[in-house]
Amino acid sequence: MPSFVALYGGLGAGKTALVRGMGAEAGTSEVRSPTFTIVHEYETNPQLIHFDAYRLADAEELLAIGFEEYLTQNAILVLEWAERVPEALPKERLELHLSGSGDEPREFVLMPFGARYESVVNAL
């Protein structure tokens, strides 16, 4: 069963840095922003699949690269700029809203959608 994390936040909020940390925990130091390629797949355990919707006009562009097929993989899927493609988001997901930039402290707000993610957030 895939895990889906939707990241929200402005430029410099730390979305890619957060995914780098997730990648390091999963076993890779190769995480970089997929702004121009839209998706990067990392052969980690579990597999990490990193999307960036910043340059997309709408959800149709994300769906055109096979996004729905990715949702069936047993992997951790992370989508930056989720606010740009709300129609593509799975019903069950964890939303992470980041605020702050530069040297400012970051604020994280977790919003679970679905019982699985509610239990994750409640365990924190």
Automatic annotation (TrEMBL):
Gene Ontology process terms (BP): tRNA threonylcarbamoyladenosine modification
Q: Does the keyword Amino-acid biosynthesis apply?
A: no
Query: Which residues fall in a coiled-coil region?
Result: none
Per UniProt, the keywords (alphabetical) are: ATP-binding, Cytoplasm, Magnesium, Metal-binding, Nucleotide-binding, tRNA processing
Q: Name one Pfam family in it.
A: TsaE
- Is Metal-binding there in the keyword field? yes
Kindly list the GO CC terms recorded for this protein: cytoplasm
Q: Which PANTHER family match?
A: TRNA THREONYLCARBAMOYLADENOSINE BIOSYNTHESIS PROTEIN TSAE
Q: Which family does it belong to?
A: Belongs to the TsaE family.
Q: What protein does this entry describe?
A: tRNA threonylcarbamoyladenosine biosynthesis protein TsaE
What gene is this protein a product of? tsaE_42
